[in-house]
Amino acid sequence: MACNHCVVRDLNFEIKAHGELNLRVLPEVIHHLSRSNTIHKVEENVITVKEAGVRDFLDFCNDHMESEQVEFRIDDQTWRPLSELPTVLDMEWIDEVITKGLVTCYFQPIVNVREEIFAYELLSRFKKEDGSLIYPNEIFAAARNRGRLYALDRLCRMTAVKYAAPLNKKTFINFIPTSIYAPEFCLRSTVELANQLGVDPSLFVFEVVETEKVDDLAHLKAILTYYKDRGFEYALDDVGEGFSTIEMLLELKPHYMKLDMKYVQGVSSDLNKQKIAKQFLEKALEIQSVPLAEGVEFREDFEWLKQSGYQLFQGYLFGKPDPIPKQ
Which residues form the EAL domain (predicted)? Predict the structure, then answer.
């Protein structure tokens, strides 16, 4: 069964009022919302309102309260100024994308030094019901704004596992560590699905998205340990200059490390990028991790990386993401 954060339920908005005028008006707001059955809870200067009543409250607040002294939050997230609330409400379409599973997967090849396909990275693509495309940066921004990141990440992981099953090939599947509360609950359904489909777990590589933004190392390590204990592999993406110490990498011990494309593109002629690429390679080999260069677009960069000792490569030079896996 999915945890509460992995499914789409009606949102409740906590509203916090400050200032003499707002606190004086607040009882009238509570009375009105109670009549419309859209208030969920009242605690001193904080009220919790169902989404059905939030637009009504917003209109009233803008007309009769000092809106700059009102804050809101969703699901214990950080408090935000009321001016950001309309954006959250306008992004309600993300709920439909998740509940109706409006996601598909594209395949991008990962090749070895002989340019043979070693694996595919599965990349999520989204559509609205009318068929129009939604760009990934747009959809993840909406998910974050509405507190749906957990549910969206789960949908993408589950969909990717289903697409990967018929390939019988190593596949890289992205996940966002901050979207996972506790691996034993949030990841159980993903692991169970892979087992039900009869796929060898060693064919799955779960790739940490936004590696550079990981703050809670212990939490990330718990997630990766959960995967590893069940026979899966994992990768760190976008690793580059200034990435945390070798001690951190030694502790995580990723099976694959992906060099950030900003150090890949133009590396054949840029001495600074070459220095970083070599340092990365040494770091990967030191912890017995497979070095993978992503974002390869030009053959001269590929040749330089190959001669330097890189083992795997990904980028438009070998194939763009496509709904049909390149053979």
Answer: 87-327
